[in-house]
Amino acid sequence: MGDLYERLRRIREQQRRGATLPGGSGSSPPEGPVTLRRKSVTGGAPGPGWEERAPGVFYRSLPGELPRSHACQVSPDGRWRSISAVFGVGEICSPLFLDVETSGLSGGSGSVAFLTGLGRFVGTKDGEDDRPRLRVEQLFLADLGAETAYTGELHRLIGDNPCYVTYNGASFDIPVLRTRAIMTRRNLPEARHLDLLPITRRLFSPVIGSCRLSAVEERVLGVQRDEDIPGSQVPERYQEYLRRGDPRGIAPVLAHHFYDILHLALLAVHLNGLFCCRTPSSATGETTDLSSGCQETLPVVADEAARLRLLWERGSPSDRDRAAFRVRHLLACPGSSSGRAREKLAELQIRIARSRKDWPGQEAALRLLHRYRGSREDAVALAKFLEHRQGRFDEALQVVSAAADRWGRDASLEHRMARLLRKKARYDGPSRISPG
């Protein structure tokens, strides 16, 4: 906004001096039509190894590798296979790992996607070192006036039927690219989309709290970047590049963006391994050496109750069977979990048992919650089960009465106790327990 005010001030000053039209120093206009053009600062290549695809549009391709333990997920022809049904993109696909850097920290029509990265699997190396290989393509906009050519080249690289894999792409990357496509009278190619942020949050936010990509890289993937540029500085670096055309300031942004794509692919196969019963590299002791710019740290373990809930809610029938078996096993072993984790497992067991009409399993989980947590809601839930499924009115009354003595009477307990007393009187005669 300050630049706009400065430009308006200069225009008013030129008008006062009588120099509003090029070619004339006074009030006499030049002969013939006059065309006013804004001088455009077109930057050159942002560094070595970049190919100019159009004036102001630069492209480069860089190789990358993932840990050897994930080789079973990448086919020789570069497709991602054995994908968990939790992701909802099919059992096999050719993923397009997508990340965008913009000229602003938020979306909208004024935020330009000046750097777009696309990562693709290209298979595995031959021989003993069968690490999954990745090709990272970066497209850079060096001149804002070349956005139409930039968007056309980007859509050509994306192809007709992409399977996007992003991190917060549903809220940021895809809407930004869709908006920029509309601004250049195009339609963004869209098909399947897997956003890893919601799944990552469900698995790891109970463990690590914030699920920013940098925190996930360090705590979940076990890699930490050295001398990385903060994302908040990216728009400023790009504006400086447009003003001066100096590639040295934009170089850290390009490196930061490359590792975003590489770590996005690593996170995808890591999460898939958690759902497909494959051991991730961090658990086998293998060093996650993605580059000389990263060092390994000790990763954390996903929240097991959240993992099993995702398998139960979104998985295949075999996934649901595995989740049900695992929940029963963890609840049967007192030392396998404790505290809040055990409560969440019991809550999941109630859902599983109810859907499968496993009444003994549901009763065991309800009693576990009532014993460990013992809230009014737990007492009412157990009493309802004993009343409706088992017809054990005396036992249900004991549960409700104990909860009333502990927590005090409320509407839910009064209602449940009155129902139980009426049923008990109908089947067994008057009860000694009164609702008053």
Automatic annotation (TrEMBL):
Residue stretches making up the YprB ribonuclease H-like domain: 96-272
**Name of one Pfam family that matches:** RNase_H_2
Region ranges (Disordered): 14-54
Reading the lineage from the top rank, the first entry is Bacteria
- The name of this protein is RNase_H superfamily protein
Q: Which organism is it from?
A: Alkalispirochaeta americana
User: Which taxonomic lineage does the organism of this UniProt entry have?
Assistant: Bacteria, Pseudomonadati, Spirochaetota, Spirochaetia, Spirochaetales
